[in-house]
Amino acid sequence: MAIDPQFDDNREQVDTHKGHDVWGPVDEPEKLGIHGTHVAVDFDICIADGACVEDCPVDVFEWVDTPDHPESELKADPANESQCIDCMLCVDVCPVDAIDVDAGRAGD
Ligand code: SF4
After folding, report:
1. Cα 98 to Cα 7, 43, 45, distances in angstroms
2. pTM: predicted TM-score of the whole model, two decimal places
3. Exposed site from 40, 52, 53, 104, fewest CB < 10 Å?
4. How confident is the model at residue 103 (pLDDT cuts 50, 70, 90)?
5. CA–CA distance, 97 with 65 (Å, rounded to integer)
């Protein structure tokens, strides 16, 4: 299952984390929701593959620890989403389609 590209219509913003929005539902540690708005990562899909972290030309992503999450205990957090230049590399390389980038969606 890929990230829902309409998450901002279909989910509620329930929190903020390092300056970006978090979209629920969130029920830690098993359910973590979507982090970010312009660059959105579905933490419940992310398997910590790391291609986005390595390939992003402007270092949007930072690892965060997510102990006891069923998919992976690290997640690629779009901590610097305002730096995104919409190259779409991260969307293309993510093996589980956990990332959605939309230039029309305002981020932090
Ligand atoms: S679209 Fe490009 S610049 Fe934006 S987060 Fe993804 S890899 Fe980085």
Report:
1. 12, 7, 5
2. 0.97
3. 104
4. confident
5. 20
Q: Which residues line ligand 1 (CB under 6 A)?
A: 39, 56-58, 60, 84-90, 101
Mean per-residue pLDDT, 53-81:
98
Atom number, ligand 1, closest to the C-alpha of residue 99:
6
8 A C-beta contact, residue 77 and residue 64: yes
CATH of 12-97, one of 3.30.428.10, 3.30.1360.40, 3.40.50.720, 3.30.70.20: 3.30.70.20
Map out the domains of the chain as residue ranges: 12-97
Both tokens of 80, joined, read 């610097």
Average pLDDT for residues 34-44, to the nearest whole number?
98
The residue whose C-alpha atom lies closest to atom 7 belonging to ligand 1 is 56
